[in-house]
Write a structure and sequence with these properties.
It is built from 7 helices and 16 strands. With about 350 residues, it is of the alpha+beta class. The strands form 3 sheets. Strands 4, 5, 6, 7, 8, 11, 12, 13, 14, 15 and 16 form an 11-stranded mixed beta sheet that branches. Strand 13 and strand 14 form a beta hairpin. It is globular, with a radius of gyration of 22 Å.
Length: about 350
């Protein structure tokens, strides 16, 4: 925590026995329970160095530390940032997000986000996700590329969010991971929460704050080991839940971190084939249009930087699986200028 914004308080006898958010609301400079709950939800509050829930009952002698973030801009301004739109009607948008584009405003990214671009593109966007996330239904990490849905109305935003919750939206990713995965298919069922010691990271942990996270995967192609690595496996991952950094955390958890991942990966330039961002691309999304009832099925080809990593590995290929023939054949059939709509 920055010393300028860090505050601490040691629980006194007369303060013990109440919820953390209740006590925090009485401290300078919090002053409100709702603000206290926001700080706790953002993992900006710790008790004896540990992240706890707002329902934690404080005890005498516990040391509470909390950080007050700088004030956020009060109003979003449209910005003329190009969008790669693959499907659009009066109800929703499906676009391909490039690497380096943050989805919505956050600490250190108050401008130049996808949201700012959307505001310049459309006069109408769903408002259910909050003033700073107009139209947003789900997110992709800053350096993850691929297909995203955006809602133009509240009704469509609610319907798409509900469809994701009941797993009626198929979201498929393609990723290159370190190591040789022997089984053609697999499933990772590991609850995810903030890392107990590093709030910039997520982790598979068993704690009250953990949320169920399930990822299934299928091997597409395997590559033999080279001088600086232990081989690679090209994998298709399917999300059954939507947790922060889910694919990256789950693949690292099974000791096959995503190539190029600077947060959870090897962070070795030679082993990462020179890639400085995670090899993770949301290549396909399938869902029922909430208004027309038609099936929207879009496929997005690999970006050039990821294709450039795969091409030199061709001579090290151990062969594609049946799933690999299907998925890679589909990707190769997508025009360079856009997605394929089935």
């Amino acid at each position: 925590m920055s010393r300028e914004r860090e505050h601490s308080h040691t629980v006194r006898e007369k303060e013990a026995g109440v919820r953390l958010d209740q006590l925090l609301a009485e401290l300078e400079p919090v002053h409100s329970r709702s603000f206290a709950q926001k700080l706790i939800a953002r993992d900006l509050v710790r008790v004896n160095g540990e992240i706890v829930s707002k329902r934690h009952i404080v005890r005498p002698g516990e040391r509470i530390t909390f950080e007050i973030p700088p004030a956020e801009p009060s109003e979003l301004e449209p910005e003329a940032i190009p969008l790669d739109i693959r499907f659009e009607d009066e109800h929703l948008i499906v676009l391909s997000k490039p690497a380096g584009l943050v989805v919505h405003p956050a600490q250190g990214h108050w401008s130049g986000t996808l949201v700012h671009a959307l505001l310049a593109h459309s006069r109408q966007l769903g408002s259910l996700a909050g003033d700073d996330r107009p139209g947003i239904v789900h997110r992709l990490d800053k350096d993850t590329t691929g297909l995203m849905m955006v809602a133009k109305t509240d009704a469509v935003q609610a319907a798409l969010s509900d469809a994701i919750k009941i797993r009626a939206v198929s979201r498929r990713y393609i990723t290159l991971v370190h190591g040789y995965i022997a089984s053609d298919t697999g499933l990772v069922d590991g609850p995810i929460a903030r890392h107990p010691k590093d709030r910039m990271r997520m982790a598979v942990v068993d704690s009250p704050q953990s949320r169920q996270a399930v990822t299934s995967f299928g091997v597409l192609e395997r590559f033999t080991a080279g001088t600086y690595d232990d081989g690679f496996t090209l994998v298709e991952c399917r999300l059954h839940t939507g947790r922060t950094h889910q694919v990256r955390v789950h693949m690292a958890f099974i000791d096959h971190p995503v190539v190029g991942d600077q947060l959870y990966g090897r962070r070795n330039a030679k082993a990462d084939l020179g890639l400085r961002r995670q090899f993770l691309h949301a290549y396909r999304i399938t869902f029922e249009h909430p208004v027309t009832g038609e099936t929207v099925d879009l496929t997005d080809r690999l970006p050039e930087d990821l294709r450039a990593v795969l091409d030199p590995l061709a001579d090290l290929s151990m062969g594609r699986t049946a799933a690999g023939d299907e998925v890679l054949g589909l990707l190769e059939s997508v025009p360079a200028s856009g997605s394929r709509l089935s």
